[in-house]
Design brief:
By secondary structure, the protein is α/β, with parallel strands linked by helices. The protein is about 15% helix and about 20% strand. Strands 1-4-5-6-2 form a five-stranded mixed β-sheet, with helices on one face. The chain has a two-stranded antiparallel sheet with strand order 3-8. A two-stranded parallel sheet has the order 7-9. Strand 5 and strand 6 form a beta hairpin.
Amino acid sequence: MIRACARLLPLLAFAACATTTAGGGAPDATKAPAAAPPPAAAPAARSDSPLPPAGALTSAGMCPGSTDPTYGYTKENAIAVGGDWLAGPARAREYLQGLAGPDGQRIAFHRNGSSPFGDAILDEYQLSYDGAPKPILLYVDEYHYRELVAPVGLRCQRPIRLTRPEKGTSGLGN
């Protein structure tokens, strides 16, 4: 489906391909109210989890975890993936598909829409995973780039394969 969507105009592809799961499965069709950011203290990882605790620097080149509880959870501190209107949607999906729940659970996400904020347009994504008390809202900025990390309460299931795009500007620091 992604290959077919990539052939559509970027704006149509963005709307048509916005719902997915990190594992490539079917999207979660439930629409529960979004939860506030998880608490700043990351939950302890299960001893049988192959991934390090959420918020910890992961091994084998996987992304570090943010220590800032607002990273990604507020418009003022959106996740800056860069790429502008053309490459930004694919970069946002690549980032989100690399995330996992605190115990390594697969993430399902859906793009709720976008809105202008400052000198950018932010996309709002709703995430859920098995065991999450409520869906999580994350804000993604496709017009700025900064080092990508996992938001508090989440972790990376694989390395994030995004680098600074040729176009775009530097966003606020995280």
